[in-house]
Amino acid sequence: MAEAAPGGSGSGPLSPALSLVLASASPRRRELIGRLGLTPDRIAAADIDETPLKAEAPRDYARRMAREKAQAAADPQAHVLAGDTVVAVGRRILPKAEDINTARTCLTLMSGRRHRVLSAIALLAPDGTLRERLSETVVRFKPLSRDEIDAYLAGGEWHGKAGGYAIQGSAEGLIAWISGSHSGVVGLPLFETRALLRAAGFAVG
């Protein structure tokens, strides 16, 4: 169980231990939150419609997805942490690649140019209070040859990944430049996550 942050010197009794639900089945998010010294008490993958709204901006979409995932997993006895990561080229939201042709299209589009990775998080308290943060990272792939794209796709890391790549895998060797949160690109921006959890009373590293 996650621990409550201790009070200051001379304060009253410590608050009861806080319970944390992670609204994601992603092993990457579980591993990342572990870096903050926390283990979720429960995993509750949120099943929601992830279709972008017409003309919805990438930032708004990422925030909405994180918020709706948290609300879908709401628990009157626990805080619920949810996140969503969106890869965008301009205002175009790239899909999660479920087939190799989609992954190829995404990588070809991003080859040699910058794209944004928007990683939104939402923390829903038992009383319904919602805290939100957004991390924005700019990433640029080197110009990718067809052979490089084919080799990356053959490894299978692209499957189910926003934009068709996973920065924590071999794709990192194809990235020429990054500005922002590496953990945000992986799937959970630790700086923003730590701030939200501390504000809610969790003891984090």
TrEMBL record:
Signal peptide coordinates: none
Keyword Repeat: no
Keywords annotated in UniProt: Cytoplasm, Hydrolase, Nucleotide metabolism
Annotated site residues (Important for substrate specificity) in this chain: 28, 85, 168
Subcellular location: Cytoplasm
Transmembrane segments: none
A cellular component term, taken from the record's GO annotations: cytoplasm
Enzyme Commission code(s) on record: 3.6.1.9
One Gene Ontology biological process: nucleotide metabolic process
One GO molecular-function entry: nucleoside triphosphate diphosphatase activity
Requisite cofactors: a divalent metal cation
CDD domains: Maf
Predominant localisation class: cytoplasm
Catalytic machinery residues: 84
InterPro entries from the UniProt entry: ITPase-like_fam, Maf-like
UniProt record similarity statement: Belongs to the Maf family. YhdE subfamily.
Protein name per its UniProtKB record: dTTP/UTP pyrophosphatase
Organism per entry: Novosphingobium aerophilum
